[in-house]
Amino acid sequence: MDQRDAILSRLLDLHPKKIDLSLGRIERLLEAIGRPDLRLPPTIHVAGTNGKGSTLAFLRAMLEAAGKRVHVYTSPHLLRFNERIRLAAPGGGRLVEDDALTRALAFCERANGAQPVTFFEITTAAAFHLFASAPADWLLLETGLGGRYDATNVIKSPKATVVTSISLDHPEFLGETVEKIAYEKAGIFKPGVPAIIGFQSVGAGRVLEREARRVGAPLIVAGEDFHIFEENGRLVFEDELGLLDLPAPRLPGRHQHQNAAGAIAALRAVAPEIPAEAIEAGLRKAEWPARLQRLSSGHVLDLAPPGAEVWIDGGHNEDGGRVLADAMAEFEEKNPRPLALICGAQTTKDVTALLRHFVGLARMVIAVPVEGEHKSWAPEEVAAAARAQGMEARAASSLEEALALVRATAFQETPRILVAGSLYLAASVLALNGSRIE
């Protein structure tokens, strides 16, 4: 274990709970390390259930295409902690180097001492310290969980706030209805700061708009203040500034059109000088690992049937299942192949709700454990949930066994394989594949 990993391991023990939503502890720690939160670049703060990371990926690609220096903070990571902190650099941002990360973590650990603080709070403080110490034009900041009491919400005056699609997730922390969850996400809204509200259900949208008006945040609402539609394979964006005729996003799936629209609306609100050419380039270049990502090489393809498509996605809730199934149906329409769904999930997730969207679409379901997650559904339980909905399903003890089962199945055509249900499972696929995230 290197010094960085040793510090990260110690930080996990500073609070008895993994998640304890509050702002008091991080505010105390930020005071102890010199208030880096007051020395950050102009910030776009993003919350939501699904689409946060993709929206930040679009924002980053567009801003960097315009020559801007951009810091980015996201969570969780897939393969290594460094992925959470991307520092601005000439020619595009780079993941924080091990030495710089180790120094920042050690600095915050010394300043905190033995006082209780959650892992996310102290690592967020370390990220702010790094961001405040390096020049940048923008900071793109993703909430960890919720919004109102999320550690990132110590930022008092962002340039814009964005709330992406809201659905049921983490009910044990945020509430058991989309309206209650929307209320928590709306906690990032600030007086006088534009609030960009992405495409929402009626109930969530109503709560978000009410809370924005209550705090005095100017509203920019999807479907009212900005619109998107497809025309001849192009994405057309429209707002009060006019029309943009744009290429379809590089990130696959129609849901990414909505995420891209939210990113564009945010930039048009706070950085109207960003040229259309940069927005167009950003749509073509944006990348976001493990979100409907197709593997193009690596060990997993060696284990899969020859010529098979292999896709991975961290979608883990009902809405995530819906957009994934919609994407697979679109792929099926354009290039028919039998779909094999390899699925694993945490017990805190409603795996039945996720699976129901694949009824009539997935030719087979293979359930696997989520490695490293003690609260993972047993593969037999996931397989039983799939069978209860009329799907053919089997249980496997590992990803390797699941891929062997797909390979041994006599499909009439080369299959399309989707691995989904958990970001931790997606991370396991990337690790097995020998992939790197830079």
Describe how the helices and strands are arranged.
Blueprint: H1 3-11, H2 24-32, E1 43-47, H3 52-65, E2 70-73, E3 85-87, E4 94-95, H4 98-112, H5 119-132, E5 138-142, E6 160-163, H6 171-174, H7 178-185, E7 195-197, H8 202-215, E8 219-221, E9 226-231, E10 234-239, E11 242-247, H9 255-270, H10 276-285, E12 293-294, H11 299-303, E13 309-312, H12 318-334, E14 339-343, H13 351-355, E15 362-367, H14 379-388, E16 393-395, H15 399-408, E17 416-420, H16 423-433
Parallel strand pairs: 1-5, 1-6, 2-5, 6-7, 7-8, 13-17, 14-15, 14-17, 15-16
Antiparallel strand pairs: 2-3, 3-4, 9-10, 10-11, 12-13
Helix pairs in contact: 1-4, 2-5, 3-9, 3-10, 4-5, 7-8
GO biological process, one term: tetrahydrofolate biosynthetic process
Family: Belongs to the folylpolyglutamate synthase family.
EC number: 6.3.2.12, 6.3.2.17
Structural key phrases:
single chain, 438 residues, alpha/beta, UDP-N-acetylmuramoyl-L-alanine:D-glutamate ligase, Protein-Tyrosine Phosphatase, Chain A, 2 domains, eight-stranded mixed β-sheet, six-stranded mixed β-sheet, 17 strands, globular, Mur-like_cat_sf, EC 6.3.2.12
